[in-house]
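Annotated sample (chain length 132).
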Amino acid sequence: MSGDGSRVEWKTPERDNRPVSGWFISAVIAGALIVFTFFVVGTWAQLQAREAHLNPAGPTTPQVLGQAEINLVNTGLMQLDTRAYEEKNQQLGKLHGYGWVDRDAGVVHIPIERAIERIVSGQPPQRDGGEP
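Output written by the structure step:
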């Protein structure tokens, strides 16, 4: 099939050596700016007409701020519930601190790190003045 003459060789067209006119480029840019300005002004006018259609009474003044309830919406500040955070801190304090478990029975708790060290070193828990 390649020998049938259907193959066409591409030739690059000759380059136009005429200089580009600065006035022509300036006119194109000026025309583009005029068209852009026309569309911006047209869009702004459409938005103004739409706003006037949706709110014919004009802009309203905002409700008084600082009231707990405006219309049906409760705008008061919500109180944060910190009970879980406080309980967690209390538990962490107990886990990492010293204190009494049962004062009458003489049972205390020690920090978990200290208890682990004692167990790893082979010191069993002690009660009643040093007896395990």
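Annotation: The chain has a mean pLDDT of 84.
Annotation: Strands lie at 69-70, 73-74, 99-102, 107-109.
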